[in-house]
Write a structure and sequence with these properties.
This protein is α+β, with helices and mostly antiparallel strands. It is built from 1 helix and 9 strands, in the order αβββββββββ. The strands form 3 sheets. Strands 1-8-3-6 form a 4-stranded antiparallel beta sheet, with no helix packed on it. A 3-stranded antiparallel beta sheet has the order 5-4-7, with no helix packed on it. The radius of gyration is 17 Å and the shape is globular.
């Protein structure tokens, strides 16, 4: 099945839901709980969409206790929502930020970072990559040198 047949109804609903949010008297506005609204990443960078044919990928990422994502960066905007657990993300000289269940964020773009599960339960994240055909959602990187 072609993707547009799957995503077109979803996009229509989201547009309708967006209109419902604007009109708080709407019955549909009562069904929505906003998680995040921003035009900037967690580091204050403006969101910049890649050029080319859009390709949205949604995935559930599971990070077991004591494990790390490894240092990486994203050239595409990424929305993440913590479903379960708590994750510490090291952004190098920009500091460490901790996200827990119920937190939503627009992750850093073109900035090396490493997520770590320092807890005793798995971390589960819903991650939505707003990418483009031929663009990688994540690139492995070396850890930044301490300053």
């Amino acid at each position: 099945m072609q993707l547009y047949k799957i995503f077109l109804p979803t996009i229509g609903f989201l547009l309708f839901a967006g209109a419902a949010i604007a009109d708080e008297s709407s019955q549909y506005a009562k069904l929505l709980t906003p998680i995040l609204e921003s035009g900037q990443t967690i580091l204050g960078q403006p969101i910049a969409y890649p050029t080319g044919t859009p390709k949205v990928t949604a995935a559930v990422v599971v990070l077991p206790p004591g494990k790390e994502t490894g240092w990486h960066s994203h050239a595409v905007p990424i929305f993440a929502y913590v479903l379960d657990g708590e994750i510490s993300v090291d952004y190098g000289d920009k500091g460490i930020k901790v996200y827990k269940a119920g937190d939503g964020l627009l992750d850093a773009m073109n900035w090396p970072h490493n997520g770590a599960n320092k807890g005793t339960a798995p971390v589960r994240l819903l991650v939505v990559y707003m990418g483009a055909e031929g663009k990688s959602n994540a690139e492995a990187m070396a850890a930044p040198k301490p300053q």
